[in-house]
Amino acid sequence: MKPEIQRISQISFDQSVICILGSDQIPERLKLSKQETDFAHTQLQTKEEYIFINSYNRCTYLIRLKEGIAHYKVREELRRTSYNLRKLIKENNHSELVITSEKTYNGAIEDFAEGLLLSLYSFDKYKTKPGKDDKNFYPKKLLLQGELMDSEIKWLVDLTDAVYFTRDLIKEPVNQLNATSLAGEIKKIGDSAGFKVEVLTKNKIEALKMGGLLAVNKGSVDPPVFCILEWHPSNCLNKKPIVLVGKGIVYDTGGLNIKTGEFMAGMNGDMAGAATVTGVLHTIAKTGIPLHIIGLIPSTDNRPGGNAYTQGDIITMFNKMSVEIGNTDAEGRLILADAISYASKYSPELIIDIATLTGSAAMTFGNQAIAVMTNADRKYINLLEECGNDVYERIAELPFWDEYGELLKSDVADLKNVGGREAGAIIAGKFLERFTEFPLIHLDIAGTEMLRKDNYYRLKNGPASGLRLLSTFLKRIAANYSEKR
Ligand code: BES
Ligand code: ZN
Ligand code: ZN
């Protein structure tokens, strides 16, 4: 259960407190005894990550801000400390916990709270009894004390709510969540957050001739879906919408080019891009960001069934281009390509797709960076990089030269769905680029999403990579529009 966030004006004597310190001075309002204060001062000299004081009826946690590093790294250190503290906090069974700060920067409380909320997440809906490590019932409330803006607190709540449900969706196994049930979940989220969701089912997808999505679906016994999410507030500032496209492969076996050994593990998370797009729309709608945003989510599983698509098949995509299938495991780009060409009907300002697309992106950047490829104006990538540092979902750009696209040439069709072994992430991006005339930013989250162990509060097996990045990016775009007015 996600702890509730509340704002308080004063700390009472019996409340346990986390206090972030910008100097060695310990504020009076923590009401530590002389002995405790002396102890804290000695501990502050040792530069330990945190100081813990147990005063029988309450606990105090002190965290000294890091100095001499870039501001965005100071912020990240706080989020990481919250992760390192999570076990101790749970063990102490606080039903409520105050977070406050002294002589720090604006936003320190929110940063720590964000890290802690994301660190306390767990997926235990299928456990009939909590295990000994699942002390997930405390704290029930985080009480924020300090000079805080209501809008900032609301953003924190909306965004972390989105991370929670996005992670839940990513973690669902395919026997619990197929394409149709994913669409049902998206609809529910849309209804509660206030954005529109239209679900195109198989008949409609056939009528539209979305050949990529239909080809990947051929080996499945479950039908595909294509979800259209829309947030179009009356006060929106952009004339042309920004379209987000998310890869919704609810399970990737590889198809007939079946994945072997350990490579299939975790492939229920191959719809992380789709879940993340849903999370972004939730946050934007809940916050009321004045932008017109569309989300497109093509979804199916990829399996070797009786009529599965095969290597050598030639298919016709939604935009009428023909594609020779070189590998059925390069399925993500096929369903995304249909969605990206479908986006043309909106004449978008920008298309951003997000996908667990290639092992190559993971091999290149590990879990440290989202691989980005783009042909859009540099102002977008500059802003994305800035947001990436701020929320610490950093991006790293790969070259997007046309020569890489030449590797996709086919003898029998307009295009092949694979190139060679080298530069796999870039070639996948180049494939997608062929399906639109509009500016594209392609985010490959294969490395940052499929974590085998926690990367601090980016918890393993589906941390919802890119959700905080894209939500913040759109919020900033809206703010830039407002400034120009
Ligand atoms: N879903 C995978 C990519 C992936 C791999 C995500 C590992 C996360 C971790 C994608 O559909 C895939 O299988 N890509 C192939 C493409 C290849 C056949 C050209 C890959 O990367 O090996
Ligand atoms: Zn695949
Ligand atoms: Zn895949």
Structure explained in plain terms:
The chain has 485 residues and is an alpha/beta fold. The chain folds into two domains: 4-148, Leucine Aminopeptidase, subunit E, domain 1 (3-Layer(aba) Sandwich); 157-484, Aminopeptidase, CATH 3.40.630. It is 37% helix and 19% strand. The strands form three sheets. Strands 7, 8, 9, 10, 11, 14, 15, 16 and 18 form a nine-stranded mixed beta sheet that branches. Helix 7 packs antiparallel against helix 9 (332-342) and helix 9 (332-342) packs parallel to helix 13 (424-433). Residues 252, 254, 329, 331 line the site of one zinc ion (ZN).
Notable traits:
alpha/beta, single chain, 15 helices, Aminopeptidase, 2 domains, 9-stranded mixed sheet, 485 residues, binds zinc ion, binds ligand BES, 6-stranded mixed sheet, Leucine Aminopeptidase, subunit E, domain 1
What does the average pLDDT come to? 97
pLDDT < 50 runs, ≥5 residues: none
CATH superfamily of the largest domain: Zn peptidases
CATH topology of the largest domain: Aminopeptidase
Q: Any idea what the radius of gyration is?
A: 24 Å
Distance between the termini: 42 Å
Number of helices: 15
CATH class designation of the largest domain: Alpha Beta
Cofactors, ions, other ligands:
ligand BES, zinc ion
Strand composition percent: 15-25%
Helix- and strand-based class? alpha/beta
Fraction of helical residues:
25-40%
> How many strands appear in the DSSP assignment?
18
